[in-house]
């Protein structure tokens, strides 16, 4: 519980550090190496290759984290707490979401739409070259809302269940989905199981995130009634079984319409809308979204503490 608390506070204060020794980057390099090996070995069965890479990456990440924490605890309980706190901190990215979104919004405030498009391209998968101001703001809010589940609530919940080892293993699951979970020619087969298993691991956290966003909008005196209404109506308006849960609750709280069709790699993908177009989208809506993120993160942290208490 102490490690979980310290890790959560560290993320709030410092945010996600950018360096080559970040555990998630190390996990990514391991996954890349395993992909090369098993693509060669199982070139005629890429679905199986992807499944094996997923399994090895998950188990290795869990065991290495587990033994690091165990060894540090044996050396000193205080040293163990510090190390596990740092590992949990690496798994959470509440402030990181706000920082990345702020980089985009900063350029919009300066009326530099080209730089805003460029900054946005680092945090979304859609084509950004032709997006207007409103579409850029909408993309930032969608990204923050969607990633509140896999970037904040899910790692907190898994840390609450089994500390840093399970939280870090979850990050491996999430990393493999972001690396392999594409439906293009290269990853349609290889990424099949990484994408499906990421959906499985995010199934409950995404739904908890949607509910917490509704509660957060009530705490902040936003439109929590509309948040609940849109959540119930639009929570499945996405190709992903999970993404629309936080997005729909956020859209309702802010009285905005999110989702809709976008271009990916030059090809138009038609997607349903999420929410109602009750007001013009503005830069201030990103600030409101950030406030919801913070309150939702705090609520998720207390649920994680409760889980830790029950399981112990």
List keywords for this structure.
11 helices; two-stranded antiparallel ribbon; mainly alpha; 312 residues; globular; 3% strand; single chain; 4 strands
Question: What report would you give on this structure?
Answer:
With about 300 residues, the chain is mostly helical. The chain has one domain. The protein is built from 11 helices and 4 strands. The protein has helices spanning about 1-15, 25-40, 45-75, 75-90, 95-110, 115-120, 135-180, 190-220, 225-235, 245-255, 285-310, and strands at about 260, 260-265, 265-270, 275. The strands form 2 sheets. It has a two-stranded antiparallel sheet with strand order 1-4. A two-stranded antiparallel ribbon has the order 2-3. Helix 5 packs antiparallel against helix 6 and helix 7 (about 135-180) packs antiparallel against helix 10.
N-to-C series of helices and strands: HHHHHHHHHHEEEEH
Straight-line N-to-C gap? 10 Å
Main sheet properties: 2 strands, antiparallel
Structural class: mainly alpha
Mean pLDDT: 92
How many domain units? 1
**Helicity range:** over 70%
In angstroms, what is the radius of gyration? 19 Å
Low-confidence stretches: none
Q: Strand order, main sheet: write it out.
A: 1-4
Q: Give the overall shape, derived from the CA principal axes.
A: globular
What's the tally of helices?
Answer: 11
């Amino acid at each position: 519980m102490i490690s979980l608390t310290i890790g959560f506070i560290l993320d709030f204060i410092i945010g996600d550090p950018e360096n080559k020794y970040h555990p998630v980057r190390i996990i990514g390099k391991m996954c890349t190496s395993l992909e090369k090996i098993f693509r060669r070995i199982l070139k005629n069965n890429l679905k199986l290759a992807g499944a094996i890479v997923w399994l090895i990456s998950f188990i290795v990440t869990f065991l290495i984290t587990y033994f690091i924490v165990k060894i540090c605890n044996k050396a000193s309980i205080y040293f163990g707490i510090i190390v596990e706190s740092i590992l949990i901190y690496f798994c959470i990215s509440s402030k990181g979401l706000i920082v990345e979104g702020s980089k985009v919004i900063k350029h919009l405030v300066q009326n530099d739409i080209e730089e805003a498009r460029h900054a946005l391209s680092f945090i979304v998968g859609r084509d950004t070259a032709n997006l207007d101001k409103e579409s850029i703001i909408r993309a930032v809010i969608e990204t923050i809302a969607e990633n509140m589940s896999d970037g904040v609530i899910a790692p907190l919940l898994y840390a609450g269940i089994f500390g840093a080892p399970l939280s870090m293993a979850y990050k491996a699951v999430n990393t493999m989905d972001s690396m392999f979970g594409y439906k293009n020619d290269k990853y349609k087969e290889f990424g099949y199981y990484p994408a499906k298993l990421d959906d499985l691991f995010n199934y409950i956290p995404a739904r908890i995130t949607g509910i917490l966003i509704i509660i957060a909008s009530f705490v902040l005196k936003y439109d929590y009634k509309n948040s609940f209404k849109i959540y119930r109506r639009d929570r499945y308006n996405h190709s992903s079984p999970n993404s629309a849960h936080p997005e729909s609750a956020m859209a309702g709280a802010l009285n905005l319409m999110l989702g809709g069709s976008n271009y990916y790699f030059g090809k138009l993908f038609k997607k349903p809308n999420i929410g109602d177009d009750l007001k013009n989208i503005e830069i201030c809506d990103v600030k409101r979204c950030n406030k919801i993120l913070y309150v939702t993160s705090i609520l998720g942290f207390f649920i994680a503490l409760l889980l830790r208490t029950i399981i112990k």
